[in-house]
Amino acid sequence: MVPLSLVHNISLLVSLCLAEGLLMRWFKRRGLRYSLLMGLLFGAATLVGMSTPMVFRPGLIFDGRSIVLGIAGLFGGPWVAATAAIMAGLFRIHLGGPGALMGVMVILESALLGVLGFYLRRRNQGRLRPLALLGLGGLIHLVMLALMSLLPGGLPLEVIRGIGPAVLTLYPLGFMFVGLAFLELEQHFRMEQALRESEARYRSYVERAPDAVFIADETGAYLEVNPAACAITGYSREELLGMRIPDLLPAESMEASLRHFSNLKAQGSASGEFLFQRKDGRRCWWSVDAVKLTENRYMGYAKEITQRKDSEAARQESEANLQMLLSSTAEGIYGIDMKGNCTICNPACLRMTGFTSADQILGKNMHDLIHHSDAQGRPCPPKACRIYQAFREGRGIHVDDEVFWRLDGTFFPVEYWSYPQLKDGQVLGAVVTFVDITARKRADEEQATLQAQLNQAQKMESLGSLAGGIAHDMNNVLGAILGLASANVERQPAGSPSRQAFETIIKAAERGGKMVQGLLGFARRTTVEERELNLNDLIQEQVHLLERTTLSKVRIEMDLAKDLHPILGDSNTLTHALMNLCVNAVDAMPENGTLILRTRNAGRDGIEVHVEDNGIGMSKEVVDRATDPFFTTKEQGKGTGLGLSLVYSAMKAHRGQLEIQSEPGQGTCVKLRFPACEPGPRLAEAVEASFASAPRNGLEVLVVDDDELIQASLRMLLEALGHSVTSALNGEEALARLKAGCKTDLVILDMNMPGLGGAGTLPQLRALLPDVPVLLATGRSTQTALDLVEADPYTTLLSKPFTMDELRIKIEAVLKPA
Length: 818
Ligand code: ADP
Ligand code: MG
Prior knowledge:
alpha+beta, 5-stranded antiparallel β-sheet, about 800 residues, 25 helices
């Protein structure tokens, strides 16, 4: 039977050991002082045990000290064990008695075996199995049993019999349980330690973190914040701990943050970017990552990203600006990469090329799409593409003589610039800017046509004044010849050679006069007499005439518009012009052919007349020069080179246009364009009635002319007609004579004179002689002359040169009212 007091003692010591084990937690460090203290505590426990032992015989006591010292050795190490063992040993010696030696030996033995276990365990990396504990406990107490033999006399046997079973059962089991409890404690202690350390580590991380870390409850109230949170909000820790997350949010962030918070509740974590308001009022962007720690604890991790947000906003704005710029320019713009594929394009580019969306272009090869062929449809090989030159040569290219193709297969003339796209000195592709220059090209062509017309007009103008000058002098010469010849022809006996000679002279001079008229006509010195005309009528007359005169080899066709608008014009001039065109056409068809005369209404009430033949046609050089006066390709005697230049002048006088379309061997079409007939003041028709009245003789005629030839011939003519003549060489002289009392019935006044001239003289003359008839002599019926005649009922035109008959009729006509 195991004595109860021994069980009590062992239980007491076991609980003391456990209490000590718990005390160990208070000490953080394990040093010598700790060991000594622990040694003292274990020692004290043995003393308590030895003070209330099971007393086998006086001086022979049993208690649980072997367990305490074994545990002290095993868990405390040599210092703890030594301290406790010394205390226990001294106390046992002090108690004395027959068991003293054995008692001290047991103390030593259990402390030593405990320390042995301590080292074995350390070699085993601190591992200790319950079975090993039981083994160690068994060993300590086996040795204890053996040490009982040290007892004097017959005591050993008696003792072994008495408590041997308890020593081999109770003691090892007690040892094992205390050991297990210590192991547990130790582990707990170590875990606690590790936890405390890691907590400290994390705390320091959080404290030192550059970004805000905070913990909040389910209402958003801050429970913990780190210094960085204080720094980026501008609030102190105390202030923040009294606040809630929404207190930091400006109104516009509220909705997003509520969404974030409900995500966090539902999913356990959430991230987002929010605008916060600092204590100083400044707004800043935070990127927040939050996790749910427990149902009512949330940890947030916030990083300030204001700068990133600002630069993002700036980038977005500049991108938007760029986009706006690209969208609002009129120039088409697109970018290509090194393969020529489109990387970007603006709306103007799409509009001009006929595409409807950028997707149709982006990524496609632009050369194949819009630049594949030239205006003649010949393919342009990419190798020769000048757009690529930009990145081949790394410089800008400007081109304005190519075309771009539209989606619908049409093309337009284009002006483009291709510039290399550079990044860090490396060519990435090219940017092409282009404009549609259809309108500009057309304007250029019109400009060129106008310039050509102007040149022609100027040429005609100068030739005209030259011809006009020649004609004027020529008229006077002819006038003199005609005058003298007609004055003398009557005096020659009929049929005599001299009469025939005079008649020939008169004919020649008359023909010369016609030629001069022709010259003047070309020089546009005669006035167009404007009347409302129907050109169809003129053409029909013309055709009638042609059919009678030209040979049957030319077929004449008419294609006349039924409702042809009338025009304002001079029928003589136009008949003459048409005649010239028809003659040219017939000349161009020596074998046979067809002449087509066509009329039609053309824009804004104007009309067009076409004179078309299928004759030999003209080369470009001939077309260019055809209207030049005296330009002819016909053999001498056949062509004068004045035909087309007359037509040109006629058209000019009618404010119309002349266009020649011709190619060698392809025939010719001459187009005349007339403007609409605008109602307006027309020149009064000069109706000249012819009078056949009795000749009046014996007039006093004042002849004012600077040309002595004229003076002489007129004098002769007038005298032949029975009048007497006073001469004046200019207007001034004539006026002086009249003022001096010279009597006159008729004045023949030349227009072209130095000094006052005809126009200057007439008014002064009228002041002296209000109703004396005046014949205004002129080689060309200028507007000034016509105006003078119109304004004065007693003044009539006398066209130079004139025959004696013509002069006589004129004189009779002006004198008739008298
Ligand atoms: P001309 O007929 O006296 O030569 P024009 O001024 O009428 O002078 O014509 C000038 C030139 O223009 C002609 O010599 C001829 O070469 C060319 N030409 C004019 N009309 C035609 C036509 N219908 N077909 C071919 N050539 C023409
Ligand atoms: Mg001709």
